[in-house]
Amino acid sequence: MGVLDAHFVPAVDGVAYGLLLFVVAAGLSLAFGTAGVLNLAHGTLYAVGAYTGAELSDGTWGGLALGLAVGTAGSAAAGVLLSVATAPLSRRGHLAQALLTFGLALIGGNLLIEFFGADEIPVRVPEALDASTTLLGHRYPTYRLVFVVMAVVLAGLGTWVLTRTRAGAAVRAAADDPQMLATTGIGPRAVHTGVLAAAGALAGAAGVLGAPIVGPGPGTADTVLMLSLVVVVLGGLRSLWGTLLAAVAVGEVQTLGVSLAPDWAPYLLFAAMAAVLTVRARRGAIPEPGGGPGPVRTRHRRLRLPALLPQALRAGRYPQRQTSQAQRGDAEVPRKGRGELRDQPRRARSPRSSRGGSLLAALGERATVRAAAPLVVLIAACAVVPYVLDEYSVTLAGYALALGLVAVSAGIMTGYAGLPTLGQTAPFAVGAYATALAADAGWTTGVAQLALAGAAAALFSAVTGPAVIRARGTTVLMITLAVGELTSTAIGQMKSVTGGTDGLAGFPAPVPLWGLEELADETAVYGYVLAATAVVLAAALVLLRSPAGTLLTGTRGAEARMRASGHPVARYLLLAHIGAGVLAGVGGSLMVTVQAYVSPADVGFEIAALALLAAVIGGTTSVVGAMLGAGLIVFTRDWLSGAWPGHGPLLLGVLFVVAVYVLPRGLAGVRLPFAAREEAV
C-alpha cells in the first residue's frame, strides 16, 4: 500500500498530462486523417494559445475566459491560413506539406519568442482553482482535476459531433469520398478549411487550458508536437477514443514511468511508435505508392528488365536483352510495359546491331560525363574557398560539406529508393560519436576514422533497415523520425560514453594519412574534409549511374512489376539504406573533424529536417544539388543570421517555405527542359 501511495500523485498527473496531449493530438489527427495535412506546425498552434492565455491571465474568471476565447480564435485563424498555404501542395504528397509546415513552425516560433520573450511566462488561474483538493487521502491541485473533467467532456462532445451531426458526416465524407460530397452541394475545399480551423482551435484551446500544466516556453512547441505524433500513431487516425487511450498511456509513461523506471522511460515512447508502425507495415496496412495494392509475390521466372526500365534504356545505361513472346508471357510483361517498349526509338530497341550497341555505349559515356561535370565544377569552386574567405567562413564551408553528405544520403533514400526519411541523423550521429570516441582513444588517423565511422553507420543501418524498407510514404517519415529520436535519446542518456548533453570535446586533431602531420589550422582541416568529400561523392555518383542505381530507380518507379518479375526489391532497398547510412556516417565523422566536438544538439531532429530540405532544394536525385542545398542552408542559418542575430530560425523558415513553392523539383529540375530537348536530339 505504501508503494501505491508513493506513486498515486504521479499516476493522476499522468492522466491529466495525457488528457492534455489528447486535446492536442485530436486536432493533429483531425488535420492528418481527414484533411490529409501532415502538420508539423501543430505544436506552434498550441504555443500560440499557451502564450496568449498566459499573457491575458490575471487570476480572474474573466481573464481565463478572455484568454480562452482569444487563444482559440487566434489558433483557428492560423489553421485557416495553413489551409490556404497547403492548398497548392495537395497533389505533391505529404513530404512537401511536412517541409512547408516545419518552415512555418520555425517562423512562428521565432515570432512568438520575439513578441513574448525567451523566458517562460507564469500563468495565473482563478483563486478558486488555485488550491488543493483531497483525493483519496492525497492533496492534489484543483485545476488539474477540473482540466481532467473538461477533457473527458471534450472527448465525448467531439465523438458526438463526428458521428451524430451533419457537419461530422461532411467531414467523414471529405476524407472518404470528396467527389460524392461535392454532388451534395458541399465543397470539399470548404470542409478542408473548416477541418484545419477546427484542428487549430483544438490546439489553441489546449494551449490556453494546458498552460498551467505545460507552461509556454521556447521548447514547448517541439515537445508537444513530438508527443502528439506518438499519440496519433499509437491511437490511430480515425478513433477519438483510441487517441484518448493512447494519450493517457503516453502521459503515464511521461510521469509515472519516470518515477518507476527512470532509465527506460525516455525510450519507451518512440520505441512503441516505431514498433506499431513496423507491425502495421508488415501486415500490409500501408498502401503502396500511388494507392496501388500491396507487394505482389509470384513464382514467375525473373525477367532481365526488358520492359521495366524504359527510362534507363532511353539513357543508354542498361542494355536491353531480346526475349521471345513465349519467354515474356502475357502474365509477366504488362501491356503498359510493351507499349513503352514500342515507344522507344528504333536504335534503342535494336541491340543486335553493332552500330546500335556502339551508339548506346557512346550515349552512356556521354551521360556519365555530363553527370560528373557538375561535381568537378563544384569541387573546383570549393577548392578556392580558403583563398577568398576568412577562417570562420572556411569552417562554415567545411560544416556545409559534412551536412551535404547527410543531404545526399537523404536524397538517395527519398529520390532513388522512394523512402522519404527524417532519420538520417541517426547514422550521422553513429559516425560522429564513433569518430570522437576513436580520437579520444588515440586513433587519430583520418582514413581510419572515416572507415570506422562508415562501418559503424553501415551496421546501424543494417539493423534498423528492415523496419524501414517495408513501409511507404508518410509511414517511412514517422518510422525514421522515431529511429532518429531514439538514437538522440540514447546519446543523451549514455553519459558515461557520450558525455550526455555536454557532448564530447578535447580530443586530438586527426592525421590525414599515416606518417603525415596533424591538421593544425582551419585551412588544413578544410582541405582534408574537401578531399574526403570529393572521394565519397565520386564513389556515390558512380554507383548511382551504374546498373545498381538503375535497379534502384526501377524499384521506386515500378515496384509491383519489379516484384512480379522476381527481383528482390527488399534487398535492393536494404542495400540503398545501408549505403545512405555510410554516407551519413562519413558526414558525421567529417563534422567532428570540423567542429572538434559533438553533442546531441548536433544530431537532433532539426538537423534531419535540414538535410531533407537540402535534398529537396537541390533535387532529390541530384548529388550536386543536395550539396548546394546544404551550402545554402548553412549560409542562411549561420552566416546570414549573423547580420540579424537571434533570427536564424526565422530565416530558415522562410527558406523552407520559398524552396517548397519555388523549387518543386529542386535546382536539378530547372535543367529538365534542356535535358529533355537534348535527349530528343
Automatic annotation (TrEMBL):
The alphabetical list of record keywords is:
Cell membrane, Membrane, Transmembrane, Transmembrane helix
Which intervals carry biased composition (Basic and acidic residues)? 329-346
Give the start-end ranges of region Disordered: 317-357
Q: Which Pfam families match?
A: BPD_transp_2 (PF02653)
Which positions, given as ranges, span the membrane?
15-41, 61-86, 98-118, 142-162, 224-244, 264-281, 371-389, 395-419, 450-469, 525-544, 572-598, 610-635, 647-664
Keyword GTP-binding listed = no
Signal sequence span per UniProt?
none
Q: Does the keyword Transferase apply?
A: no
Q: How does it sit in the membrane?
A: Multi-pass membrane protein
InterPro entries named among the record's database cross-references = ABC_transp_permease, LivM-like
Where in or outside the cell? Cell membrane
Question: What is this protein identified as?
Answer: Branched-chain amino acid ABC transporter permease
Q: Which organism is it from?
A: Streptomyces albiaxialis
